[in-house]
């Protein structure tokens, strides 16, 4: 299952702000920050299309831009809401915090470490 997002369609250039980066990436970050907790990735790409469509260059040519997403067998819902998903999959961190590291089951310790690494990566990307 693969989703491939290109900042523009073949044969065209991607508009880029020298300070803030490409229009596509600006829109992607904006949409993911606002919607990743409750919207799946394909719906977020639809939202990126709407936001990108609103952009227009300030020069006389009034340039616009579109992007493309190639879907190769990706028909599942993918959400980027690690707190909710991880709590469902691995339980709540609070049940481990007061154990004084006496948990003997290595799998439980691994789950705790996994959740922490995912949360740290998420915060680094979107905070």
What is the first-to-last residue Cα distance? Answer: 28 Å
Helix content: 40-55%
List the secondary-structure elements in sequence, H or E.
Answer: EEEHHEHHH
Q: Number of DSSP helices?
A: 5
Q: What is the makeup of the main sheet?
A: 2 strands, antiparallel
Sheet/helix structural class: mainly alpha
Strand residue percentage? 5-15%
Describe the structure.
With 127 residues, the protein is mostly helical. The protein is 48% helix and 11% strand. The strands form two sheets. It has a two-stranded antiparallel sheet. Strand 2 and strand 3 form a beta hairpin. Helix 1 packs across helix 2 and helix 3 runs antiparallel to helix 5. The two termini are 28 Å apart. The relative contact order is 0.16. About 9% of the residues have low confidence.
Produce a short descriptive summary.
The chain has 127 residues and is mainly α. Helix content is 48%, strand content 11%.
Q: What key attributes describe this structure?
A:
127 residues; mainly alpha; two-stranded antiparallel sheet
Helix/strand layout:
Blueprint: E1 2-6, E2 16-17, E3 21-22, H1 23-35, H2 41-54, E4 68-72, H3 82-90, H4 94-97, H5 106-126
Antiparallel strand pairs: 1-4, 2-3
Helix pairs in contact: 1-2, 3-5
């Amino acid at each position: 299952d693969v989703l491939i997002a290109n900042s523009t369609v073949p044969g065209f250039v991607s508009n880029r702000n020298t300070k803030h980066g490409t229009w596509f990436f600006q829109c992607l970050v904006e949409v993911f920050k606002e919607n990743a907790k409750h919207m799946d990735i394909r719906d977020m790409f639809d939202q990126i299309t709407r936001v990108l469509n609103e952009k227009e260059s300030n020069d006389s040519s009034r340039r616009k831009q579109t992007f493309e997403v190639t879907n190769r067998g990706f028909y599942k819902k993918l959400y980027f809401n690690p707190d909710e998903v991880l709590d469902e999959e691995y339980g709540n961190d609070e049940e481990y915090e007061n154990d004084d590291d006496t948990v003997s089951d290595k799998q439980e310790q691994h789950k705790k470490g996994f959740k922490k690494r995912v949360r740290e990566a998420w915060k680094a990307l979107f905070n």
